[in-house]
Amino acid sequence: MGHIVVNSISKEYQNRRKQVRPGDSSGNSYSDTLPVLDNINLEFGDGEMVCILGPSGCGKSTLLRIIAGFESATSGYVTIDKQRVEQPSSDNIFVFQSNGLLPWMTVWENIELGTRNLPDLQSRVEKVAEQIEIVELEGFEHHYPYQLSGGMQRRAELARALAINPNVMIMDEPFSGLDFLTHMKMREEVVNMHSFTGKTTLVVTHDIDDALIMGDRIIVLDGRPARVQLNHELDFPRPRDFQKLPELNKLRQQIFLMQGVSYAV
Question: How would you write 18-71 as a 3-class SS string?
């Protein structure tokens, strides 16, 4: 479960800025609509982890919200397991950029929210304990979010999402705001969890190295309105080391060039 097909998705927003501002000498003209996505066609296989890259503001997050059912497309449609996506579903869990934990609930209580569909208390207790063990938060079950580090908060969010047992995990910049070492640990955590759960996972990121290290496939979108610039399978063993995998490093350099950077340091 978790096969996604994106069929000719285009998205436009109403452009509220229709007139040139006083003193604007750029020569720009403004139309009634602002195109964001242009005829996006993609397919994500069951159990695949796909990382989506693109310049800031190109529409990556918009595409994810359409796939998750939080936003409608101007044209085209999305199907998950042959069912057309019309609205959000507990089968397709979205992990947002910002911290989504409820501050008045403990780690245990936050994760327990994902088990409300289970029939009895014992099943819920076992499920929460299992997810806490997976993300290595034993001993912090009764802590509140403000008592946790940024990385621990992200792990708690992932545990809550996994507790629902979704078919699809959709993650929008899951490592934003984390320090370097926590970022590295969380990246490894997500890869390990994907290997363990086998959930179809979509990850939007600005970090090229994250995408190349994590993904089974990488998709690069170009500038607005976004089109698919690259759709490439990453058939490399894990763990991945750019120095030991020349073809992966060559692809890395190519993607940096696509993003307008002439060299990668």
Answer: CCCCCCCCCCCCCCCEEEEEEEEEEEECCCCEEEEECCCCCCHHHHHHHHHCCC
